[in-house]
Amino acid sequence: MKNVTDRTSNPFGMRPPFERQDAGKQPAVFGYGDANADFQVIGGHPGVHGGETTGVPFTETDDGTAVQQLFRDAEFVTGPTNDPRLENLFADYIHMCSLPDGRAPTPEEYAELERYFDAELRAINAHILLPVGERATDHVLGEYTTQRGKLDLEMDALHASEIRGRGFLVVPIRNPTEWTDGDRDAILETIESILASDYRQTKGVATTVG
């Protein structure tokens, strides 16, 4: 079933509790992109993956713009960096609200907003989940696969791997500022390999395996 919406930002009208004190910053960086996407890239929070000024995920910061460039190279993204067009890709954060001075959310603050992320993920119903960084990867593996207890949360080892989940294929991405030689090529090759496959069968296969 396709989502019927022409809204690129916050297509499902999420209204999380937030309060933004810093002048010129967005109170939240909502989910953004193609609401019918097969691929969903998931960051941790605006302070690390960007968008506090633009309101668009994966902009402004070094990690954010590097992730956006990765998906440009994979031909999911076109248009200006701060106002991109995403095709077959949806981008969002585990914790969408901005916090003063760009600080990281506490565990309690993550827990408060994860339900909004989870609701959005279920609405998008993508086939491929691409969590970026340790916090997003931990949540996605814990909530959408049975594999979290079997895996160490070592992003250098998990990076660009394919993990079958409960109805999803999960492909973790190490934060770009931590990439070493070969990391960028590895994740781009994995994405291109998935695109070249019959990846829309992922949901049926993942459900039986994961």
TrEMBL record:
<keyword id="KW-0408">Iron</keyword>
<dbReference type="InterPro" id="IPR036895">
    <property type="entry name" value="Uracil-DNA_glycosylase-like_sf"/>
</dbReference>
<feature type="compositionally biased region" description="Polar residues">
    <location>
        <begin position="1"/>
        <end position="11"/>
    </location>
</feature>
<keyword id="KW-0004">4Fe-4S</keyword>
<feature type="region of interest" description="Disordered">
    <location>
        <begin position="1"/>
        <end position="25"/>
    </location>
</feature>
<dbReference type="GO" id="GO:0051539">
    <property type="term" value="F:4 iron, 4 sulfur cluster binding"/>
</dbReference>
<keyword id="KW-0378">Hydrolase</keyword>
<dbReference type="GO" id="GO:0006281">
    <property type="term" value="P:DNA repair"/>
</dbReference>
<keyword id="KW-0234">DNA repair</keyword>
<dbReference type="InterPro" id="IPR005122">
    <property type="entry name" value="Uracil-DNA_glycosylase-like"/>
</dbReference>
<keyword id="KW-0227">DNA damage</keyword>
<dbReference type="GO" id="GO:0097506">
    <property type="term" value="F:deaminated base DNA N-glycosylase activity"/>
</dbReference>
<keyword id="KW-0479">Metal-binding</keyword>
<dbReference type="GO" id="GO:0046872">
    <property type="term" value="F:metal ion binding"/>
</dbReference>
<dbReference type="InterPro" id="IPR051536">
    <property type="entry name" value="UDG_Type-4/5"/>
</dbReference>
<feature type="domain" description="Uracil-DNA glycosylase-like">
    <location>
        <begin position="30"/>
        <end position="175"/>
    </location>
</feature>
<dbReference type="Pfam" id="PF03167">
    <property type="entry name" value="UDG"/>
</dbReference>
<keyword id="KW-0411">Iron-sulfur</keyword>
<protein>
    <submittedName>
        <fullName>Uracil DNA glycosylase</fullName>
    </submittedName>
</protein>
